[in-house]
Design brief:
With 191 residues, the protein is an all-alpha fold. Helices cover 81% and strands 0% of the residues. The protein has eleven helices and no strands.
């Protein structure tokens, strides 16, 4: 039955066998084109594969069947963000937050604001999230906001915090050294 095929698709997705998952989801949809969860599962799988343009259609179909699903709006916002569709991503993220104001969606909002060049607003949201989400990514983004606002000391401090919490030491260490050089260059220009 359709549920068995859907669950088989989920099994394949969990095993990172994405093509077989997509095939199972397509088979379930062929039998029942109104099986909403399959559209969402297909969209998540396509997103995980980096096939962002392909993910939009099943998200849209899912939302026609479930117009008040915050996860679907968040997924569409993330997909649009990856495609550079910043304004659409902001609108869908706002809808997701309207339906469920959770830290994960606020994190997405801050990333969208950062990408839109609204560094101070993005930084404020990232800082508000620190008590709830204390990961290297938060500090990394705060550092990038500081960097864009030419607050090199703040950027250096926050990238250092990101480095302490991170598993990706090489990348963040390179970023730390880059910011440190900018701070020294700025200091030399002021003398």
């Amino acid at each position: 039955n359709n549920f068995s095929i859907y669950y088989l698709g989920n099994f394949y997705r969990e095993k990172n066998d994405f093509q077989r998952a997509i095939d199972a989801y397509n088979q379930a949809l062929s039998a029942n084109p109104d099986f909403a969860q399959v559209y969402l599962a297909s969209a998540i799988t396509l997103f995980d594969l980096g096939r962002y343009e392909s993910a939009l259609n099943p998200i849209d179909k899912y939302l026609t069947l479930n117009p008040n699903d915050d996860l679907a709006y968040a997924l569409r916002a993330r997909t649009e963000f990856q495609l550079g569709m910043t304004q659409q991503a902001k609108e869908d993220n706002d809808k997701a937050i309207e339906l469920n104001d959770c830290p994960e969606y606020q994190f997405d909002r801050a990333k969208i604001l950062y990408k839109s060049g609204e560094f101070q607003k993005a930084k404020e949201i990232f800082q508000k999230l620190l008590p709830q989400i204390q990961t290297s990514k938060i500090y990394e983004y705060i550092s990038y906001c500081d960097l864009e606002m030419k607050n090199y000391l703040g950027a250096l401090d926050n990238i250092n915090k990101a480095l302490i919490l991170s598993n990706d030491d090489e990348y963040l260490l390179n970023k730390y050294n880059e910011i440190k050089q900018l701070l020294e260059d700025d200091k030399n220009e002021q003398e």
